[in-house]
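Sample entry (324 residues):
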Amino acid sequence: MNTATPARQRTALPAWLFQGVTVSYILLVVLFAIAAAINPHYASWDNIRNLLQIGAFIGVIAVGQTLVIITGQIDLSVPWNLTFSAILMATLCSHGYSTATAVAAALASGTLVGMFNSIGTAIFRIHSLVWTLGVNALMQGATLVYTHAQPPRVDVPPIVRALGSGSLYGIPVPLLVWIAAGAVALVILHKTSFGRYLYAIGNNESALFLSGVDSRKVYLGAFATSGFCAALAGIMLTGYSSQTYLGMGSDYLLVPIAAVIIGGTNIMGGSGGYLGSISGALIVVLLQSVLSIVQIQEAGKDIVFGTIIILLLLLYGRQKLAAR
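Predicted structure, serialized as tokens:
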């Protein structure tokens, strides 16, 4: 009888290490305790309410990013897709269009950009890292042309203000939007065929194709959702700040991606889920706040989140190699 340990077992990392959702929530509790120890104000309801409100913007974007990353892809077009959608909504309102029309146009714009992103991945087979980065630059140019490179004229309707900074029975409206978006994401991922197809693509797209499923439609749905969520977050941010400005989405390139992978979604695709992205969004908000307290500049914050992504990429890559 051969009692030698198989090579796969020898090289595999401990299984508990990859229970990303559990680890992320433990990390969230520990980080919050550290922050509260540094500044007792962190434990106040006012501060918690503010953290949840800010986390909602990241969490909404993370809905789309989670779906895309599960397929093994990524969406780097979020910053200027968000910016263009927000500016489009605000300028349409300033030109006399109804709020419903302006919001619908912004959401449609974001969704169309997401659908365009899927073309590169699903049809031309260009990795989304390259394609969506190019689309982000394209949207930046389109925004500058649309605004003539000038600060856009802003008219933020009361409904949009309420969506970004209002409250209902003491609960921030952005948090309620996040809860609704998160619930939809959880249902999609765990209760629908589309959700199963997302995981299947991330694990083995060829096997999914052989089973008769058109992966192009799955990519289309994932990227369209990401574009829609970017536009929705742009509208919410406009209401929160009562203004739009060029580059308003610049802070949302790495942060939502970091939230997704900190929450346990494998950046190589095939595993994870939105439940972990919720804790990931709150973790990055806490990290940003703590880094601000210790006076780390924006460049330093980018270095921190970039380092996190690289380390987890290496960790997940090793996990996939060990599983083969």
